Amino acid sequence: MLNKFRLLTPGPTPLPERVRLVLARDMIHHRKSEFKEIMGQVQQSLQTLFGTSGTVLPLSCSGTGAMTAAVYNLFAPGQKVLVIDGGKFSQRWSEIALSRGLEVETIPVPWGQAVRPEAVEAALKADPSIAGVLIQLSETSTGVLHPVEAVARITRESQALLVVDGISAVGLSPCPMDAWGVDCLLTGSQKGLMLPPGLALLALSVRAWACAEKQTPGCFYFNLVKERENVLKGQTCFTSPVGLILGLKESLDMLLENGLEPVYAKQWSLTMLTRAGLSAMGLELFAKEDFAWGITSVLLPDGVDGTKVLRLAQEKHGVCMAGGQDHYKGRMARIGHMGWVDWADVAAGLYALNDSLRAVGGYSGSRDYLERGMAAYRTALEGKPGAPLSQVYG
User: Fold this and answer.
1) Is 388 exposed, middle or buried, given 0-12, 13-18 or 19+ CB atoms closer than 10 A?
2) pTM of this prediction?
3) 19 in Cβ contact with 250 (< 8 Å)
4) Closest among 73, 71, 40 to 58, alpha carbons compared
5) Residue 293 gets which letter from DSSP?
6) What would the pLDDT profile of 243-295 be if each residue is shown by its tens digit?
7) Cβ atoms < 10 Å from Cβ of 217
């Protein structure tokens, strides 16, 4: 009873009471008129969220399922794709592409850095046969935000489709699909959309649909052309995740009731709060320049066991955060501040991390990290989302 539990991981994320109440409602049938009407309403809201006039497909799977569906419907075995390899989840693009029988070329990017658009341009010019560019908007394992808008300007001038994993970015930072020229945008339910895991969402551009219509899908379950036919009738191909669709309607109503700009302003401000507070503690921010708006990654001091830090933060303070992946396991903390998270949750996370770090032998000499974090938060709220706050922290 001392502390309420706070979930500050990069997914799953906390569920608003409004969504939880909808999830508790009685079941309805997925082939009847009531569900079809809800699907129509959800479709309109999803088009606003994705920034597209095209159909957004709900898929009964995790985000990895949507990644698989994109690769298996847009590309044929033997084709070549270019993967931006800068983290654990970009590596998943390569694994999925290889399982489809594709030839994979990569642009290696150091973890913690974003790809340079000119590197993508050079690769496409050197090999015009490349059929697709697979990239993360937000690389969840590192907290990096890749310059998808700039990359899209390049892919639009080539035959390569731009396929974007927006799982930890959609509903958190801007990615207007049609305006930017993204060919495929996908996301999952358990991050910015404030839902339990189990639902993925995917949209294609006109030219991506043209490719999908010519392909023989490599998977019986993931057939995007058939899914589109059913969605236009207020249905899904197979048994619909009814509860998640009902919850999605409620979460979209919440996200869109005042427009997306206040959502982005909130997310940017929480990012500034987190980064300023961590910097004030003397910790090293992992993504120094191109950073995501829903997750902040921070390196822990040498000699400090990050696993112990995060375990203590949860056991003593009730704050659950994520650690590093792969070769950064035990060396990094990843703080999620997405979806149904506010400034008080983030402040609690900073306090829990600071206290736990000191308890395991780490050093933090800052006495005003919360004050400096809140100063950055206030400044960010008064400005434009994405505007740098160099005057608040270095």
Assistant:
1) exposed
2) 0.96
3) yes
4) 40
5) S
6) 999 999 999 999 999 999 999 999 999 999 999 999 999 999 999 999 999 99
7) 16
